[in-house]
Amino acid sequence: MESLDIHLKDLILRDLHKTPKKKRIQFDIFDELQISLSTEQLIGYRKQLVMEGLITEENPEELDSPIEVTPKGYEVIHLHGSYGTFINSIQQAEVLRKESEKLQAQNLKLKKYSTIITITTTTTTISTCLLYTSPSPR
């Protein structure tokens, strides 16, 4: 994700975190910062934040629909401090999850080899004991 996109979404969420009430992205948030979004950006950022469960939109068909921060969106800023840090946390968690799955698969493979070695060793030990304890043929 582009850093500008992350920064602009961060501005939206931080503003909603600071003042958790219904606002319009362009009219209430970015106009005050003298930032003008294209129609594609405005709709895109709003839809992405809605899909991530961080905001709700009042009128999805309206260009600059009023939005409101969700409890999850509020928590994201409260815990992570920024949207960018939240995204990095998600990416890091995914990397750790994949690494954990890889290590679990390796552990399972090692357990399988350990079981095979144990069975082989036990069988060899029993066979050796039987050979030594059986009467010798004369």
* Secondary structure: number of strands: 3
Shape descriptor: rod-shaped
**First CA to last CA: what distance?**
84 Å
Helix coverage percent:
55-70%
Compute the number of helices.
Answer: 5
Indicate the multimeric state: single chain
Order of helices and strands: HEHHEEHH
Question: Strands of the biggest beta sheet: in what spatial order?
Answer: 1-3-2
Task: Estimate the mean pLDDT confidence.
Answer: 89
**Gyration radius, to the nearest Å?**
30 Å
Report the biggest beta sheet as strand number plus sense, adding barrel if it closes: 3 strands, antiparallel
| Overall SS class | mainly alpha
Strand residue percentage: 5-15%
In the predicted model, the low-confidence regions spanning at least 5 consecutive residues are none
What characteristics describe this protein?
5 helices, 138 residues, 70% helix, mainly alpha
